[in-house]
Design goal:
Length: 528
Amino acid sequence: MSAVPKIGWWATAVVVAFVIASISSLLSHLSLDLLSEFWSDAYFRHVAFFSFYQALFSTLLSVFPAVPVSLALYRRRFYGRNLLLKLCSITLVLPVLVGVFGIMAIYGNSGLLKHWLSHWDVIRHFSIYGLSGILLAHVFFNLPYASRLLLQILETIPVEQNQLAAHLGMSAWQRFRWIEWPRLKQSLVPVTGLVFMLCFTSFATVMTLGGGPKSTTIELAIYQSIKFDFDLTTGAILAIAQMAFCGGLYFLFQRNSKNLSVEIETPDRQVPLVKPGVRLLVWDSVWLVVLGWIIVPPLIAVLVWGINPKSISVLVQADFWHAIALSVAIAFCAGVVATLFGYFIVVTSRALKLKERRKTADGVELLGSLVLITPSLVISTGLFLLLRRFADVYSFSFFIVVLVNSLMALPFVIKILSPPMWLAEKQYSLLCASLGMKNWNKFYLVDVKASKPALVYAFSLSFLLSLGDLTAISMFGSQDFQTLPMYLYRLLGSYQMDAAAVVALSMMLFSLFFFALFERVSRLSGRR
């Protein structure tokens, strides 16, 4: 049996080295005296408490409705269902600021809903800024995502169970109790944990809709301490606290977690045989309308508001096109780095699995996914504090942003590549050994051929996540170095809403174009 490739160990070592370097830089700015005082500081307690309860409420509002929504999508086949599932997938890769802008256009102070219903006192006093806006944005992004994950779990129910349930004449409640709920409850903990972590580490949403000191999370407090106050000690303490919280939450949820699929599309399997009934039809229809109302209006608002008298003046600006070029360059480089590192790590982990060293293999993949417990803003802060000792930080901005964005996408890449590459290894390892096939030949003739759709999807997800990211660029960006999300954020911050609408529409169209392009390439590669 062939030896375990070392390339994955080297890739993991690089990831761990950058994370350790960032943490070490943060620790060097800590003071035990200030640390003890900081834990008793009222501002820190408020920020920590707000971070937890906004994430908790966001998770409850996203995951609980996702159960009936996923059941409705599972039971019903209707005109527009595939489009609705596509929209659920798009929210995963849609730039956060595009969704935030669409929500502001609908629910904001000058939004359509407030304009139409201004005579109602409850609407008159509603403000999009603060906790209410954060919750709206998190539900917009996470309810469709959680629904899609749970739908994928429901799609694993064997056809024979559905046939038996129909043969026994089970009611909808009996089907839910004995067939669907046992599947769902096994995945509710990992789905809830994933959504909670996404809400807890949310940065762009809180930075845009936070609404002041009362609505500040730990990540936003880190950014404010470093970028505006240049209080390195406070920023370091907050970053360490954020990492400790995320690490604790990750291992808490990981104990009861199962592997979740991260496919873009949900396969359309056989429709479960459900007894016809008006009440069940109305119940499912209500939840499908709720899902559509959450997703569709903000996207339509971006499309409608993006075509305005400012369109031409924005599209002819050199800064706009420079931001597009920089965004695509960073996203491409981050996608390549994340896909290569993920491939290297999976190559080593699957070889360890083949030798029955599964715990070591899981450890390699876990080390490659350290960004799950070390948020990208924490890594960015550590690198910022480290590099400023030796050189001008902003001269390395491009490389640092690419590195941080690729690290952010690496856990997704590992999760995408691991199953198909492990399957290919089990099927072809003996044949490759007998033919003396290894290294480049094995990579091209086996891995690429067998796992091409997964490789394309891993790159596309990394590319799209980096294209809409605001975290790293917010720390290292400047007036001469800004991506499209940063450009949009500055327009929103200066209340240039018409120009911001044009940029938001451009970002959405770019994301949809690349989403469709990569999906098409993935399908074509799967047929060959």
